[in-house]
Amino acid sequence: MRFVIVTGMSGGGKRTALKMLEDAGYYCVDNLPVSLIEKFVELLSTPNSEITKAALGLDVRADQSFGEAEAVLNRLKATGYNFEILFMDASEEALVKRYKESRRVHPLEPEGGRIADGVAREREILKNVKKQADYVIDTSKLLTRELKEELDHIFVQNEEYNSLIVNIVSFGFKHGIPSDADLIFDVRFLPNPFYIEELKHLTGNDKPVQDYVMSFPEAGEFLDKLTDLLDFLIPNYVKEGKYQLVIGIGCTGGKHRSVTLANALYARMKNKGNYGLKISHRDAGIPNSEVRN
């Protein structure tokens, strides 16, 4: 019997995750009163039960103490009952934006207060259960398709998983550094394809540009040193409980050198480790007329 507790921040994607688990064959229950959780688990544990996979949605409500739910989970653990905790998270900025767009009221938002106040209060209440979670998925920048892939890896394919998602982002310094970047690398030391007429209107997604940029020994040496650095950093980030790492690779306009190196780094990292990996090219589609090189 596999039993998953799905909890996390309001607006973090709990209901979406439950729906995806249901589609994957899990028997899912949401909004069950805390007083009935142990009875529900007892029914699931009945000999010869036809249910082999179940998920229970558990969240903060204004009319009940989440401390009671934590106490129930602790009792279940003390009795030796096995369950996994999936914590759905997102940044304050993402959560506030989602609530504003949906025009819903956050369950812990004080009357006449701000959504951010409710988010902060909820994060404080959930901090202990987040620490105990087996899986933490940050949906701040996750597409629905990507969330489904992550859940399939964990709960369908039963692959080894850690909660870190690495985002590689190419960008142009001319357009500003990505505000959420954790690590920034400047590749403007490489010759610029912009000044070669036949490459000017292409990007680092095109092979002629890639061949040109990577023809310089410095590009390969940079890539080797960066890969070695990340091989050291990522396991330590995982150990410290980091859930998202944004790596920014920048050149002048964000079209040629940064895109090429970001693609090359992604190719090296995609078969390493068991973390999630994403790539995006923030400025590759901006017309050259808007780029000062």
Protein model, in words:
This protein is α/β, with parallel strands linked by helices and 293 residues long. Helices cover 41% and strands 17% of the residues. The protein is built from ten helices and nine strands. It has helices spanning 14-23, 37-44, 66-78, 92-102, 115-132, 144-155, 197-200, 207-214, 217-239, 257-269; strands at residues 2-8, 27-29, 53-57, 84-89, 135-138, 165-172, 183-186, 244-251, 276-281. The strands form two sheets. Strands 2-3-1-4-5 form a five-stranded parallel β-sheet, sandwiched between helices. A four-stranded parallel β-sheet has the order 7-8-6-9, covered by helices on one side. β2, α2 and β3 form a beta-alpha-beta unit. The longest helix has 23 residues, at 217-239. Residues 289-293 have low confidence and may be disordered.
User: Which geometry do the CA atoms define?
Assistant: elongated
Helix count, DSSP H or I runs of 4 or more residues: 10
Helix % is 40-55%
Mean of all residue-level pLDDT scores = 90
**CA(first)-CA(last) distance:** 60 Å
For the biggest sheet, the summary is: 5 strands, parallel
Order of helices and strands: EHEHEHEHHEHEEHHHEHE
Alpha-carbon Rg, integer? 23 Å
Structural class: alpha/beta
> What is the number of strand segments?
9
Low-confidence stretches: 289-293
